[in-house]
TrEMBL record:
SMART domains, sorted: WD40 (SM00320)
KW Cell inner membrane (keyword) present: no
Name by which UniProt lists this protein: WD repeat-containing protein 11
Compartmental location: Cytoplasm, Cytoskeleton, Cilium axoneme; Cytoplasm, Cytoskeleton, Cilium basal body; Cytoplasmic vesicle; Golgi apparatus, trans-Golgi network
Residue stretches of biased makeup (Basic and acidic residues): 1197-1207
Phylogenetic placement of the source organism: Eukaryota, Metazoa, Chordata, Craniata, Vertebrata
Organism this protein belongs to: Gouania willdenowi (Blunt-snouted clingfish)
InterPro entries associated with the record: Beta-prop_WDR11_1st (IPR057852), Beta-prop_WDR11_2nd (IPR057853), TPR_WDR11 (IPR057854), WD40/YVTN_repeat-like_dom_sf (IPR015943), WD40_repeat_dom_sf (IPR036322), WD40_rpt (IPR001680), WDR11 (IPR039694)
Keyword Flavoprotein set for record: no
Segments for region (Disordered): 1185-1207
Encoding gene, per UniProt annotation: wdr11
Length: 1207
């Protein structure tokens, strides 16, 4: 027999079903790797890798409308561990912050009683990560401390706020989407509410805005599709309030900043997506749907690549990737060069079948890797899609060419060039699937052979919910000592079925064995009140299902209930206006159809007493007598008694498999409350005693019988307890109205009773005749109970009208459960579920095992096992991979920048060393060229790629300008970028009737004659400084840039608090040395207590190559593991000298202490051995009592290997 693991103690849980319309926006995919989803008033926590629900949070009384995972953009250690923290807001205005692992609420927040419109955790400063910003209708934004629930500040606005979006590049900028337009806030800070009311702009609807187009040449073709849509939205954002018609057409669904490039915003309309450049307040790109296309409902912009995930009304998810805006070489006219931002459709998944009750609600994507999407459907389904890249064979690529530019996979892995034998994770993240060649618009670099790829969606998981209520539930027979080897806790749930020809509603279920059950359903009545009854027998192992009553069931009174006898021999079928039927379950035959004058049954129950044991004893005695007769005395002596007993045993088994018809009883009540007793044995049915009605009871609605206790419940809410042994009866009024159902708990001697009323349920103790616990709709729960049963001897199961089935403790408190108590189907990889010490031990274990020389992996559930075991995986790649694996946002940002610039500076150092030695490298020995840092890192990128991006952007702005203000802004940008000739052309375009005509003409003259030196320069500098002093900062900075005093311009910008603008200018105009000074001052400013963004300052210093300073800062901030690993990576790449500086030694020592506290002794010994004299003391403590023999653990070769420098 196959052994089964029997979980006798089933954990409390909630099985969820369909979603409410208010749950539509309540879904979020966190950096922790889990999805949170609102389902009525509950919150599901879903593991997308295994497609299973691992937690259900219940405390809200109203429908959940928003959920938001906290961000992981902070340094994690034992005091700030990895934790699962979630904020949720409901329709009554309550916000709850959860500790998801324990299922408890950190704090509860209530400001108003209207649905929460939007939620976001602040992630941008190092001081606190507990700050939660919420939109409370109609027009308030409130900043809360999510740990204590205290209000920090509150601000109201003139219009109703629908949602908001933070600028991912500058957290002081945010945009509010209001009922009339957009409000831009530029002074957001956590310390005080925004001072101004923000800059209000109105959205002219794409269909209402006038078409500002130049007259097309006669030869040109008429614009079609996206081009036509772009013409419609030439002027999109205005400062004037639009006309009433335009406002009625304002159907903007969503507003979001683009995380892939600065100062770009996305507006979503049902039939187009508009990309705005916020410096111009102008549309620079559009994704339009043709007339026959399916409208958009949601769009999510990616950070790793300029790409958009779009959800359509039919449930189809499409991925659109931005085409290059680079100008072709032969295009002399910039108008021809940069047309607009075009997002090409690169992949799409299958649509779902949309019906009245089934429609797509929301999509979320994985924020860590951006190559997984989850679709929430209104019927409770969660569809998990994964983006896969497939290499295209060059010979076939021409056949499948779609006219789009090719996508290439990057030649690096985890930020480093791929080694010849190195293992690679194919689809680790979006930026490891698509290289930058597409977005940079260049040919692939020489000496590389990039692989052209095609993207496809693959359905990797499907999570289904329960069907629509109402439904009936019934738990399978209880666990006993006899069935313990093959028991499985199964719950049958009957539903309402609608089809073209018939509408059936499942009314009840009764189990006839551990693996088979009977269920009955009735159709809606016809004119005569007759229905179609169906009684189905279902066998689970074989899947066989048949009509138990054969051809019977058409046009008869509806079945009221079915009751299976205690030994599962007989079945009673009770009808509304027709005498009951008695069936033999084993043979499927009708034993008796009662006479017409049989009393009407109101309640019925089988007795647990029977004569099976006495029958078996009689059979055994008769068999033994037969065995003695057949075996003679002579043979008796020769045949061993054990053989006879074996024969008898086998015979008894075969006999019991042939049914023994035991005698069983049932009782029922009629409309007058009289109790009848009927005995059934084989084919015979005998009428027994009749007990007159109890005067204190109304019409009996249900009966339950266990042992010597019989309980009756009536329509008035009275319970009558009969003690059959003592012949006593005791009535108790519950004052709860109609007693719908009563069920005894399983288990010998367990006399608990579950009672269901129209407004809730109660648990009673029949021994003491007192109530144990109660649950009531409207008082302590917000759902109505449809059906009840016992799950185990101490847990109840309730079906409710919100489409959920809840398994609760006997106290029936709706509490969330601890996740470590759950028995999950599949093991889950989530370090956040571990206790802090275990999580950091695992992280240290995955990061570095240099004490053994090889890498081993005993953790079975890591998808990346083979890659992590690969000895060719460098330390930097390993750090990046582990930060992805842990969903550690802070770690990922740090190691991405660190690995890029460590390799970049190491390459530059190698080149300078080789040229200093007079070596001339042959073509083949050049290091592989490194691709530039992704533009989503903005001012952290190299100056060359940053300048190129800004030039492409200003070309695009130039093409899109449609007013004098736009032209002026373009000219200003071109002057700052050093493109003086083009700027002069734009300045000379100013019309003569424009008030600025004279100014612009003079400016054009100034720009063209600026080359002369001497007194003119000093005059211009004097004018510029006077302008800046008198509040004209931008104009003064322009003049300084014209006379090559950009460094002074940056200093002025920084003095006046324009730090981001100064960094931008330094990147596009200054030499590396001058730019470095400007950025170092910015880093110092970021470290100041008022700003407190040291983590961002570290990234700035990394981009400048100040690696010693970064090591010092990490150590001073007590980021010991990051400091030690970073210094180690610097030593290995040769950008730092191995010396005995106190910073290096103390970082290694503190990391050794950290490893010792985690129990990794060999790791601690290695780092301590490299920490100088202080490390020796730690070594002694580590190996105390072992005769001071660290050499056994750590030999000299290992130490050398640890110290070895790649140089």
């Amino acid at each position: 027999m196959i052994p089964y693991t029997v979980n006798i103690k089933l954990a409390a849980r909630t099985l969820t079903g369909t979603l409410s319309l208010q749950n539509k926006t309540a879904v979020d995919w966190g950096w922790q790797g889990l999805i949170a989803q609102g389902c009525h008033s509950s919150i599901l926590i879903i593991d997308p890798k295994t497609a299973q629900t691992i937690q259900v949070l219940e405390k809200h009384k109203a429908n959940v409308v928003k959920v938001k995972w906290s961000r992981e953009n902070y340094y994690h250690n034992i005091s700030s561990p990895y934790c699962l923290r979630l904020a949720s807001g409901d329709a009554s205005g309550k916000i709850i912050v959860w500790d998801v692992v324990s299922g408890t609420a950190h704090c509860e927040i209530q400001e108003h009683s209207k649905p929460i419109q939007d939620l976001e955790w602040l992630w941008n400063q190092d001081a606190s990560r507990d700050l939660l910003l919420a939109v409370h209708p109609p027009n308030y934004i409130v900043l809360w401390n999510g740990d204590t629930g205290t209000k920090l500040w509150k601000k109201s606005y003139a219009e109703n706020i629908l949602s908001f979006s933070f600028d991912p590049f500058d957290p002081s900028n945010m945009a509010l989407l209001t009922s009339e337009g957009i409000v831009f806030i530029t002074d957001f800070t956590h310390s005080k509410p925004p001072g101004s009311a923000g800059k209000k702009v109105y959205i002219a609807s794409p269909h209402a805005s006038p078409a500002h187009t130049k007259p097309a040449p006669t030869a040109a073709l008429a614009p079609t599709g996206a081009k036509k849509a772009l013409n419609k939205v030439k002027v999109l954002i205005t400062n004037e309030k639009p006309t009433a018609e335009a406002v009625t057409l304002n159907d903007c669904l969503q507003l979001s900043y683009l995380p892939s490039k600065r100062n770009h915003m996305l507006l979503l309309y049902p039939r187009e997506i508009l990309i705005l450049d916020l410096e111009l307040s102008q549309t620079v790109g559009v994704v339009a749907i043709e007339r026959s296309g399916v409208p958009f409902t949601q769009v999510i912009p990616c950070a790793q690549r300029d790409a958009l995930y779009c959800l359509h009304e039919n449930g189809c998810i499409t991925l659109r990737v931005c085409r290059s805006t680079a100008a072709p070489e032969e295009a002399a006219d910039p108008e021809q060069a940069a047309q607009e931002l075009v997002y090409d459709l690169r992949s799409q998944c299958d649509a779902i079948r949309v019906t009245k009750t089934v429609r797509p609600y929301r999509m979320v994507i994985c924020p860590v890797n951006e190559n997984n999407a989850a679709l929430m459907v209104s019927d409770g389904r969660v569809m998990l899609w994964e983006l896969k890249s497939h290499p295209i064979i060059l010979s076939l690529s021409s056949l499948f060419s779609s006219g789009l530019s090719p996508l290439y996979s990057p030649v690096s892995f985890c930020g480093a060039p791929l080694g010849p034998n190195q293992k690679k994770i194919q689809d680790l993240s979006l930026n490891s699937m698509i290289g930058q060649t597409l977005t940079a618009g260049e040919a692939p670099p020489p000496n590389t052979s990039p692989q052209e790829v095609q993207l496809k969606f693959l359905l990797t998981g499907l999570l289904s919910g329960l069907p629509l209520p109402p439904f009936a539930i019934r738990m399978c027979p209880p666990l006993t000592t006899k069935n313990i080897n093959h028991y499985q806790p199964l719950l049958a749930s009957g539903i309402h079925i609608k089809s073209v020809c018939v509408c059936l509603s499942c009314r009840g279920i009764e189990w006839v064995s551990l693996t088979s059950f009977l269920s009955f359903a009735t159709s809606s009545p016809n004119n005569m009140g007759l229905v179609r009854n169906e009684l189905q027998y279902v066998d689970l192992p074989t899947g066989r299902c048949f009509a138990f009553r054969g051809e019977r069931g058409n046009d008869e009174p509806p079945i009221e209930m079915i009751k299976v006898s205690h030994l599962k021999q007989y079945l009673v079928v009770v009808f509304r206006d027709k005498p009951l039927e008695l069936w033999d379950i084993r043979t499927g035959t009708l034993l008796r159809e009662m006479a017409k004058n049989f009393p009407t049954v109101t309640a019925l129950e089988w007795s647990p007493s029977h004569n099976l044991k006495s029958l078996k004893k009689k059979q055994m005695a008769a068999r033994e007598a037969m065995a003695r007769q057949t075996v003679s005395d002579a043979e008796q002596s020769s045949v061993e008694s054990s053989v006879i007993s074996l024969l008898q045993d086998a015979e008894s088994k075969s006999e019991t498999s042939q049914a023994i018809s035991a005698r069983e009883h049932f009782v029922f009540t009629d409309t007058d409350g009289q109790v009848y007793h009927i005995t059934v044995e084989g084919n015979t049915v005998k009428d027994g005693a009749r007990i007159p009605p109890d005067g204190s009871m109304g019409s009996i609605a249900c009966i339950a019988w266990k042992g010597d206790t019989l309980v009756l419940g009536d329509v008035d809410g009275n319970l009558n307890f009969w003690d059959l042994k003592a012949r006593l009866s005791r009535g108790t009024p519950t004052h709860r109205g109609w007693v719908k159902k009563i069920r005894f708990a399983p288990g010998k001697g367990n006399q608990k009773l579950l009672v269901m009323y129209t407004d809730g349920a109660e648990v009673w103790d029949t021994k003491e005749v007192q109530m144990v616990s109660s649950i009531r709709f409207g008082r302590n729960v917000n759902y109505k109970i449809l059906d009840i049963d016992w799950c185990t001897s101490d847990k109840v199961v309730l079906a409710s009208d919100d489409g959920c089935i809840r398994v609760l403790e006997m106290a029936m408190k709706s509490a969330s459960y601890r996740m470590d108590e759950q028995d999950l189907t599949d093991p889950v990889w989530c370090p956040y579920l571990l206790v802090p010490r275990a999580a950091f031990t695992l992280k240290a274990f995955l990061l570095m095992q240099p004490w053994s020389g090889t890498f081993t992996m005993d953790i079975t559930q890591v998808d990346m096992k083979s890659v992590l075991q690969d000895p060719e995986l460098s330390l930097l790649q390993r750090c990046l991979l582990v930060s992805r694996l842990f969903g550690d946002e802070s770690d990922l940002h740090f190691w991405t920048i660190a690995s890029h610039y460590l390799q970049s500076f190491a390459q530059a150092r190698q080149l300078s060393l080789s040229t200093a030695d007079g070596q001339t490298q042959s073509e083949g020995t050049h290091p592989p060229p490194q691709s530039p840092l992704d533009i989503c890192h903005d001012t952290l990128c190299e100056s060359s790629s940053f300048q190129k991006f800004q030039l492409d952007r200003v070309r695009l702005q130039e093409v899109k300008r449609s007013s004098y203000e736009h032209t002026k802004k373009c000219a200003d940008q071109l002057l700052l970028l050093g493109q003086t000739d083009r700027a002069v052309q734009l300045l000379l375009e100013t019309c003569a009737d424009n008030p600025s005509y004279y100014c612009d003409s003079l400016k054009a003259c100034l720009v063209t004659t600026i080359t002369s030196s001497g007194p003119s320069q000093s005059t211009i500098k004097l004018v510029a400084t006077n302008m800046i002093a008198n509040g004209k900062l931008a104009e003064g900075v322009q003049l300084l840039c014209l006379i090559d005093k950009a460094a002074d311009a940056c200093r002025y910008l920084q003095t006046y608090g324009e730090w981001n603008r100064a960094a931008w200018l330094a990147k596009v105009l200054l030499s590396p040395a001058e730019g470095s000074d400007v950025l170092k001052r910015w880093a110092e400013h970021l470290c100041s207590p008022q700003v407190n963004q040291k983590s961002k300052a570290i990234l700035v210093l990394l981009s400048l190559g100040c690696f010693y300073k970064v090591g010092e800062m990490l150590h001073s901030m007590r980021y010991f593991d990051r400091a030690a690993l970073f210094i180690e990576a610097c030593l290995k790449s040769g950008v730092m000298e191995a010396n005995d500086s106190s910073n290096i030694l103390s970082s290694f020592l503190e990391y050794a202490r950290l490893l010792r506290s985690l129990g990794l002794r060999e790791g601690a010994a290695l780092w301590a051995s490299r920490a100088g004299s202080a490390g020796e003391q730690l070594m002694e403590e580590l190996f105390q009592g072992e005769g001071g023999a660290p050499e056994v653990i750590l030999n000299e070769d290992d130490v050398k290997q640890g110290r070895e420098d790649t140089e």
